[in-house]
Amino acid sequence: MSVTRSAVTGVGSFLPEKVVTNADLSKFVDTSDEWIVERTGIRQRHQARDDQPTSDLATEAARRALADAGKTPADVDLIIVATTTPDMTFPATASIVQRKLGCPVGIAFDVQAVCSGFVYALSVADGFVARGMARCALVIGAEEMTRLMDWTDRTTCVLFGDGAGAFVVEPREGEGTKADQGLLGFALRCDGTKTDLLYVDGGPTTTGTVGHLRMLGNQVFRHAVVNIAEAITAACAASDIEIADVDWFVPHQANQRIIKGVGDRLGLDEDKVITTVALHANTSAASIPLAMDAAIQDGRIKRGDLVLLEAMGGGLTWGACAIRL
Fold first, then answer.
1. What is the DSSP annotation of 161-191?
2. Could you read off the pLDDT of 227-239 as tens digits, one per residue?
3. Nearest-angstrom CA–CA distance, 310 and 231
4. pTM for the whole thing?
5. Residue 280 annotated as catalytic
6. Number of other CB atoms surrounding residue 104 within 10 Å
């Protein structure tokens, strides 16, 4: 029986030009390259210019994804931007990206699930594309996390960076099996009782300010390893696949220790795990497409590969997705 799947047909990413190394941070924060690398695996991060809003990063990543898919802005009828650092309170950053790309009138909105935002946004796009409500969707993760940093807090300011990544999602006919090209299955979760573990201490209806990121790192780490592993197992079950079937694991690039902890818990082959956190730090909703694009560009991930995505962020939110590329 023929079924319509939502398939990833193009991938692109963008990082701001400015690179901030651990040595750069050590000039004004009580930290060192050795301390940061040992605890996180991060060696550098990118930082947007003051005149470079999130929509600029998202737009450039989208352009590259469209080129990869052989599409133009005129083809796009759905834009979803996963971000926790929008240009403005409103309109949605997706609306601004639509204008900057020159796309026709269509559907455009943002998704806010922090670091899990890209997986959440993919699931939303799947709901539109697989049901015939969109023919060419842009799913973008774009963040400027450095805007949220308290630069006196060495436990958080060393962890984050700015960047954007995008997928083009289009309908493809399949047979409803795990051999189909497309998004095969999801597992999405949120536990609102854990909001105090990772949050920003500001907002328009509370403080009237943007605020700074606050985190209880040790507790987030413990929840991350257990919760992500559960979501991955559930996403595999929803996709009718086994962990051993997976060609590549593309995790949220938050912390090398979390990535290793999840991999060890699930028995994942380290050679199948894509890690780019050393080069761009935690870019929240942008980190999965950034890592995916890097692995496609260097030839590791190829068409037909079975890829597993996962993320966890403030909320606490977490989730996983299996894709046959």
1. -EEEEEEEEEEEEE-SSTTSSEEEEEEEEE-
2. 999 999 999 999 9
3. 8
4. 0.98
5. no
6. 10
Active site residue 321: no
- Find out whether 262 and 223 touch, Cβ atoms under 8 Å: no
**Which ranges in the chain belong to alpha helices (H)?**
22-25, 33-40, 54-69, 93-101, 117-129, 154-157, 217-239, 256-266, 277-280, 287-297
Amino acid at 178: K
- Give me the phi and psi of 104, to 5 degrees please: -70, 170
Q: Which of 157, 252, 255, 321 is catalytic?
A: 252
How confident is the model at residue 190, as a pLDDT?
A: 98
Over residues 156-174, the pLDDT tens digits come to 999 999 999 999 999 999 9
282 is catalytic: yes
Of the pLDDT bands very low, low, confident and very high (cuts 50, 70, 90), residue 105 is very high
Residue 247: C-alpha distances to residues 58, 105, 193, 301 (Å): 28, 38, 35, 8
Cis, bond preceding 91 (omega within 30 deg of 0):
yes
